Amino acid sequence: MSINEERLQKVIAQSGLTSRRKAEQLIVDGRVMVNQETVTTLGTKVSSKDEVAVDGVPLDKEQLVYYVLYKPREYISSVSDDKDRDTVIDLMDHVPERIFPVGRLDYHTSGILLLTNDGDFANVLMHPKYELEKVYIVKVKGTARKEKLQQLYQGVTDDGELLKAVNVKVKSVDRKAQTSIIEVTLHEGKNRHIRRMMEQIGHPVMKIKREKYGHINLHGLRPGQSRELTRQEIHQLKSLSNKNVKE
Fold first, then answer.
1. Where are the alpha helices (DSSP H) in 89-217?
2. Cα torsion through 39, 45, 49, 52, rounded to 10
């Protein structure tokens, strides 16, 4: 299932028309149409682009919404979790629309996370070819040296996967505690990208915080707080994506 697809009965139920169980019966009874074609198969998946109608009446489509959340540590970047852990959606219960996170921050990572119900917008932001910069502040074990960090520009290999950074800067070094604070900029974010990358050069990660996503920052937000993106911010993200891919 793609990120912007949902089961048909769930879409009908979340429109407020009826319960999911009754929505399933509507589908089986042949009373539901998708793009003007009758659908009777339970589990059919639809996207925000599809037109769904019940008894000939189109469902109201949700207004597209865009949020930035200061994700705390120990929250799952998902709409649900099979281990019953807290998810970022639990922090967004004031939002009536069916939103989902744009990409992921791992369980122990904090910082900027965008959420929306606009699947096309999310897919653009997540695709590596659009080269949106994400800036992270990383606390690692050991005294970081520029020469060693240079390896990250060419990339290091972990489990057959090349992991690289766009930019790396040493912010501070605590020689007594034997720790360093490093700013890392990525264009893409593979699974546990920074943790695996830093492990490969001998600097295990202690803490990660994503401070910037494109031009979006955490100004004015505390962990667990969120706000809507402004029209200008949405436009800038879309424009930056388009600019980068053309170049």
1. 119-126, 146-149, 151-154, 193-200
2. 30
Q: How many domains does the chain have?
A: 3
Calpha distance 72→220 (Å, rounded): 15
Q: Is 106 a catalytic residue?
A: yes
Q: Decide which of 29, 58, 87 is a domain's last residue.
A: 58
- Which of 50, 90, 106, 158 is catalytic? The answer is 106
Write out pLDDT tens, residues 126-165: 877 777 899 999 999 999 998 899 999 999 999 999 999 9
Considering the domain architecture, whether residues 150 and 207 belong to the same structural domain is answered as yes
Q: Are residues 205 and 234 in the same domain?
A: no
> What pLDDT, on the 0 to 100 scale, is given for residue 242?
59
The predicted pLDDT at position 1 comes to 43
For the chain, list residues with pLDDT below 50: 1-3, 245-247
User: How many whole angstroms separate alpha carbon 14 and alpha carbon 37?
Assistant: 21
Stretch (H or E) spanning 89: none
With vertex at residue 210, the alpha carbon angle to CA 224 and CA 80, rounded to the nearest 5 degrees, is 50
CATH number at residue 29: 3.10.290.10
pTM: 0.76
Do 166 and 203 sit in the same domain of this protein? yes
The string of DSSP codes covering 50-65 is S-EEETTEEPPPPPP-
Residue 121 is predicted with a pLDDT of 83
CB 216 within 8 A of CB 114: yes
